[in-house]
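Record type: monomer structure entry
Structure origin: computed from sequence
Chain ID: A
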Amino acid sequence: LGIITHAYEYGGTYDVKLVVTDVDGCQDSITTRVIVDTVTADAGSNINACTNASTTLNGSGGTIYSWSPAQFLSDDDIANPIATVTTTTKFYLTVRNAIGCTATDSVSIIITPPTTFNAPTADVPVCETKSVQLQSNNSAQFNYTWSPGTYLNNSSIANPVATPLASIQYAVTITDPTCNDDSTFLVDVTLQPAPIVSAQRLNDIDCTFPSSVLQATGAQTYSWTPAAGLDNPNKQNPLATPTATTLFTVVGTDQFGCSASDTVTVKVTNAGQATFLLPNAFSPNNDGHNECFGIRKWGNVTIKEFSIFNRWGQRVFTTKNPSQCWDGTFQGRVQPTGGFAYIIKASSVCGEIQRSGIVMLIH
């Protein structure tokens, strides 16, 4: 008798019939029932793990188990060995049942790379009596420990607010709660003194001195109030032409953003003798001096007429705004060097004003 084999694709119960025919053509048959057993290996789902962390594999499907590679496992022939790996590794599971059927499956342990933390802002200036928010430059999902907790509103958050009474150095430890990776950084908070701001005036205002120059020192930038009566409230030394006695306040800010203030009073009276002087020449050459011809320094006057004429009698400039001046151009064109006639009629608390003459335009 020959041996006949057949591979079944699926498990189940099958009736198998054998028919035998001899040389004379006589036949006989026999029927038997074949039960095809199956086994399915299940190594579980892929696992995300931290470096050097112990991870349990979860195999099922058979009665005998074999895992590989075995060198990373606590026991390679049990269903649920403990794996310890430092890099992403694929494990293969082969299972066998009682009658010797086998199957294979695989699973990967995917190692999460160590967390890289950004360095916090290391040097933080803060003004006296002020607060500053520290910047960790990392995600709020991490855990934070700021030490010491002195002057902090909360030593366990990413960006606490510090209100120091003195300069101080903090150590901040940042921890990734997923794998407990951590790093420690130093942050220096330096207390900056407030600037010493001083405000002064060149003179009080009367008929002899219709304007005054304010002067501030001790800071980097300045802001004057009230702005009315000033040619530029954000200058260090604005020109002041108030119509009444005024208390001016200047706030000075240094390079660290620290600020302080001072005040100065400019008195306004109608005492003295009015002069209302005018220059006899100006040079609009962008050097910051004598750039235009006007009456801004006359203070608070009401212009009835202010006109400038060229040698042919053509009016090249006119205004009734005492803060405006002629820059030496007409219809967008620079006028030639030479003399230009002017007429000014105005009034003020110091009386009526009439001026006429020649001003030289110099390039």
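Annotation 1: The chain is about 0% helix and 45% strand.
Annotation 2: The two ends are 127 Å apart (CA to CA).
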